[in-house]
Design a protein that fits this description.
The protein is 37% helix and 15% strand. With 427 residues, it is of the alpha/beta class. Helix 1 runs antiparallel to helix 9, helix 3 crosses helix 4 and helix 8 crosses helix 9.
Length: 427
């Protein structure tokens, strides 16, 4: 393996920091799930450079490897695989689970879930990937080709869709259960649009980009002044292409680390172990300060406040994937009403005779927000197993999620409003 361009000592140290943080989170994985018979392994999968429609002959900024067949370098897709020791006896459990992370995260954000998910369903095989441009996967410059009939959104999506498809081919997975968190959920929908034949079930975990943008000006006017100012500032940075990662990179290391530590402390109070929290901080900070790549997709795909330029509420009902589940945290800032609206649309289409329309399930994980896989890992695991069709394998002691039985807003009583909205009501 080689490092191209950015081959400085500083970059090498950052890569080593990322590897060390990843290793620490791996060491925590077996503490969650109640079983240590699983085999956890990190892997690097070469994928052809030509599979990703990049502009020109771009050198990779971070990780690549020399192709054995051509005088070129392949890209690398990094990740972790968990395999249960009894996989041969569990071939009837459906397709392996492939998990995609959210924005500015990586494969090891699922460290609390990997063993439990493998132990209870998916044929005992679970993959979590660093999407291209993040983590320890290759980080080419995010400059896409111009293709007739495709706009900037289409091409940005293809960066992730085609790299995932190349990874699937390399692992010879004819079918997979595909799960994606936040931006990874959005990209999972885009993948299913193009390659539905390879997806057995789709699991969207607090997905970004589902609803249409709120156009009622009174909605924002009702927010606290401080929140409105922050939204306006964030929107300006967003339109300028300044990402959270690029902002952290602009800070001295001490200030950047402190900023990430504050984020982890505020967003993840459920992580009480000091060493575990420190490992998360190291992992997130190292991920942010490596050369920008996948992170640069943000303003090409989404508008401020995570509204999609091409909302998936219009796209999910058209997918040729029969079973789709959407999972939200009880305190999620992604609006669960969007998932319920998807469910309602699909039920209406099926009632009108379009039986090929996906069946939608919506689950809620209590005492959790947007980072539900860490905030309430046991109930999150149960939700993913139910979404994957493995409910029969859950024990009587399993922590079960809330199941939204209605497709209207009568089920939204389980979910809490975002903290800033509740603060406004209390004024």
């Amino acid at each position: 393996m080689s490092i191209f361009n950015w081959g400085s000592t500083k970059l090498a140290n950052r890569i080593e920091s990322m590897r060390l943080a990843e290793g620490k989170l791996m060491s925590f994985a077996n503490r969650f799930g109640g079983n240590t018979t699983e085999q956890l392994e990190l892997f690097d999968t070469p994928i052809p450079r030509a599979s990703v429609p990049l502009h020109g002959d771009q050198r990779c900024q971070l990780m690549s490897c020399r192709s054995e067949t051509e005088d070129t370098s392949d890209f690398i897709m990094h990740g972790v695989k968990v395999t249960s020791n009894d996989t041969e006896n569990r071939l009837d459990e459906g397709a392996p689970l492939v998990l995609l992370h959210g924005y500015a995260n990586g494969a090891l954000y699922y460290y609390r879930n990997l063993v439990g998910l493998s132990n209870n369903h998916f044929g005992g095989v679970v993959y979590a990937l660093d999407m291209l441009g993040w983590g320890l996967s290759s980080r080419p410059s995010f400059k896409m080709k111009s293709v007739e009939g495709c706009d900037d959104v289409d091409m940005a999506e293809q960066f992730f869709v085609e790299s995932l498809e190349a990874w699937r081919k390399a692992h010879k997975l004819e079918k997979m259960t595909l799960g994606g968190h936040s931006l990874g959920g959005y990209m999972s929908v885009a993948y299913c649009e193009k390659y539905p034949q390879h997806v057995d079930r789709l699991i969207l975990i607090s997905p970004a980009g589902v609803p249409h943008e709120e156009t009622n000006p009174s909605t924002r006017n009702n927010l606290p002044l401080k929140v409105r100012i922050l939204i306006s500032l964030a929107a300006g940075l967003w339109r300028s292409g300044i990402t959270p990662a690029s902002f952290i990179k602009s800070l001295p290391e001490g200030r950047g680390t402190k900023l990430v530590a504050g984020y982890v402390e505020n967003r993840l109070p459920a992580v009480t172990c000091v060493d575990e929290r420190a490992s998360l901080v190291e992992y997130l900070y190292a991920n942010a300060v490596l050369p920008g790549s996948g992170a640069d997709c943000l303003n090409k795909i989404l508008k401020p406040m995570a509204y999609a330029k091409k909302p998936t509420i219009d796209r999910i009902p058209l997918l040729n994937v029969r079973d789709i589940a959407i999972i939200y945290g009880q305190n999620d800032w992604m609006d669960p009403k969007a998932g319920l609206n998807v469910k309602k649309r699909c039920e209406e289409l099926r009632t009108s005779g379009k039986e090929e329309t996906p069946k939608i399930s919506v689950f809620g994980v209590k005492d959790a927000g947007h980072l539900l896989m860490l905030e309430n890992w046991e109930e999150f695991n149960s939700a993913v197993i139910l979404a994957g069709g493995g409910g029969k394998r859950l024990s009587k002691q399993a922590h079960l999620p809330f199941t939204c039985s209605q497709s209207d807003e009568s089920d939204t009583g389980f979910f809490n409003k975002p903290r800033f909205a509740k603060n406004k009501e209390a004024q």
